[in-house]
Structures are given as structure tokens and as C-alpha cells.
User: Which sequence fits this backbone?
């Protein structure tokens, strides 16, 4: 079973941490069985599961519902649940109560929230409640409106300095790891070297202590624009489309279901039924 200590030990030994998102029992089971270190029940579920344009409409109820399904499936992976937009921004009290719900009702082992210096009081209060917190810096999707779109962060000297300073502050506040999203690889490398806690990158290069991807992206299930940082490790979309098309065609032609998919009944029972029908 992977824990906070496993991830820390991986940073120390240089064994790269692997994390993937999951939102349901069946997928989480496959991902867990493949040996991933951590599963993130990301609020990206707003887009890839619920069809929203961004993560902002995702609710605590959505997160608990999907986290509970994933937690039941994960036997080895460390399960991290995202705190959705407005579940921690309003007050420290809200943040602790909502983090607690993701642990108690969702069965997660840790929560993740976005932000740097601004959320340090939330991080330390949640950690004081014995809940591990993964921080999230860089292109934090809940700030899409403040950023004016999904834009790479940390390119200017000022912005890069702020990210370095934020990463130190969230570590001091007690975060057990940090996701670095959409920042230049060389900046992520500097942050990774400075921190004692592991960095998990998405669009932040291979100098991080680990990587995370949205599973629909890396398996080729998503359509439309794919961000530059996504590598398609498989084309599961084509496999699914082929299977579904074959199902439609064979159901229409009667080739499916074949005899091996069909339950039998004794001939005498059928003969008696037919006699009764003919009366
Ligand atoms: O919600 C999510 O899936 C995430 C990852 C992109 C890191 O936060």
C-alpha cells in the first residue's frame, strides 16, 4: 500500500512517482492493478466525466461520489481527492470540514487543493486535522478566469520567483507533495531540487519527482484539442469505436448473440409450452 512515506522515500531514492487520474471503480481497478503509485480523483472529472467546459462547476457531492468508487477499487495506490472550487476558498473552517468529508465519505487518503501563499492557512489547518495535503501550483485550472485562459505559468522572472516562493511556503505549511502543472521544465527542475517534498509534474518536464496525466488523454479517449504535454500511450478510443461498431452490426445481423451467449431450456419444457400456446 502506497502512503505519504512511500512517496517521500521515492523522492529520496530517485524512484519516479507515477500518478494517474481515475473517477470510477472499473478504471481505478485496472490502474491500481498496473502498479501506479497514486490515483488522483481530479476535479478534471468536470470535463472528462460530466462534460463541463472547465472544473469550476464541480461540487463536493460530485467529488465524494467518484472518490468513494475509486477508493473501493484501490488496493495499493495512494488515493488523492481534489477539493473542488469554492470548497476551501471561503474559510479555513470550510476547508477542514470539506477535506474531512473527502476522507470520511470518499475514503481518500489525502486531498489536493490549488494555490500557493494564499492557501497556506488552509493547508496547515487540514494537516493539523491529520489529513495529508497535496498542493497544486502553476497552471491551476480553478483560476482559469483569473489567468484569462489555460496559459503556461512561470515564464517571466517575477512569476517564476513567485512560484518558487509559493512552493517553499506550501512545504512549510505542511503539504506532503505538490503537483506542478503547465510550467517550464527548467523552472520545475529548480523547484524540485529546492523542495524536500516530492513534485509531481503535468506539463512540467521530466525533472519532477513524478508524473501525473488524465487517463482519458493518455489512452486516446479524448477528442478535440490535446495539450502539448499529453503523450498518447494507447489508442483506446479506436479500440472502443471498433468494438461498439461491431456490436451494432452483429446485433442487427443476428450474428450476436450466438449459441455460446444463450441459456438453454429442456426440449420437453418448450414442447409443453408450445402445446399450451396452441390450445
Ligand atoms: O483535476 C485533475 O485531474 C488535476 C490534474 C490535471 C493534476 O488536477
Assistant:
Amino acid at each position: 500500500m502506497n502512503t505519504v512515506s512511500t512517496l517521500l522515500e521515492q523522492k529520496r531514492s530517485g524512484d519516479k512517482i507515477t500518478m494517474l487520474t481515475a473517477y470510477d471503480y472499473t478504471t481505478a481497478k485496472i490502474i491500481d492493478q498496473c502498479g501506479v503509485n497514486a490515483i488522483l480523483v481530479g476535479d478534471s472529472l468536470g470535463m472528462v466525466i460530466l462534460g463541463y467546459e472547465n472544473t469550476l462547476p464541480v461540487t463536493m457531492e460530485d467529488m465524494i461520489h467518484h472518490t468513494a468508487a475509486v477508493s473501493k477499487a484501490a488496493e495499493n495506490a495512494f488515493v488523492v481527492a481534489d477539493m473542488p472550487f469554492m470548497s476551501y476558498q471561503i474559510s479555513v473552517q470550510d476547508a477542514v470540514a470539506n477535506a474531512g468529508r473527502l476522507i470520511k465519505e470518499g475514503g481518500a487518503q489525502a486531498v489536493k487543493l490549488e494555490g500557493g501563499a494564499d492557501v497556506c492557512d488552509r493547508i496547515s489547518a487540514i494537516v493539523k486535522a491529520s489529513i495529508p495535503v497535496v498542493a497544486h501550483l502553476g497552471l491551476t485550472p480553478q483560476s482559469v478566469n483569473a489567468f484569462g485562459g489555460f496559459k503556461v505559468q512561470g515564464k517571466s522572472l517575477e512569476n517564476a520567483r513567485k512560484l518558487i516562493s509559493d512552493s517553499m511556503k506550501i512545504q512549510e505549511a505542511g503539504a506532503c507533495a505538490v503537483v506542478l502543472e503547465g510550467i517550464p521544465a527548467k523552472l520545475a527542475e529548480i523547484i524540485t531540487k529546492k523542495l524536500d517534498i516530492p513534485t509531481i509534474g503535468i506539463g512540467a518536464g521530466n525533472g519532477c519527482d513524478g508524473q501525473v496525466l488524465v487517463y482519458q488523454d493518455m489512452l486516446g479517449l479524448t477528442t478535440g484539442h490535446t495539450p502539448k504535454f499529453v503523450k498518447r500511450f494507447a489508442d483506446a478510443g479506436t479500440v472502443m469505436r471498433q468494438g461498439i461498431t461491431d456490436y451494432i452490426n452483429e446485433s442487427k445481423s443476428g450474428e450476436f448473440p450466438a449459441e455460446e451467449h444463450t441459456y438453454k431450456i429442456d426440449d420437453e419444457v418448450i414442447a409443453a409450452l408450445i402445446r399450451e400456446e396452441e390450445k
Remarks:
- The two ends are 66 Å apart (CA to CA).
- The chain has a mean pLDDT of 97.
